[in-house]
Specification:
70 residues
Length: 70
């Protein structure tokens, strides 16, 4: 499976969306309220999203974080 990350963390209402590239189905959709808490706790770091080299590892980490949050 291939995933696409759409993240805008440095705006007033940040968001992260992870979408299955083949089907277009969103598997993670975090809006500002939930995401601000993750950013404040350091669970998500904006610098992690700047490099395209570690996208696969980043998707794995986001899935694990989503499981822990539930």
């Amino acid at each position: 499976m291939t995933y696409q990350i759409d993240a805008w963390l440095e705006r007033q209402d940040p968001y992260i969306r992870v979408t299955d590239r083949n089907t277009g189905i969103q598997v993670i959709n975090w809006s500002s309220t939930r995401l601000k808490g993750l950013l404040e706790r350091g669970a998500i770091c904006p610098e992690d999203f700047q490099s395209s080299d570690n996208q696969q590892e980043l998707v794995k980490d986001l899935f694990l974080l989503a499981c822990l949050e539930q």
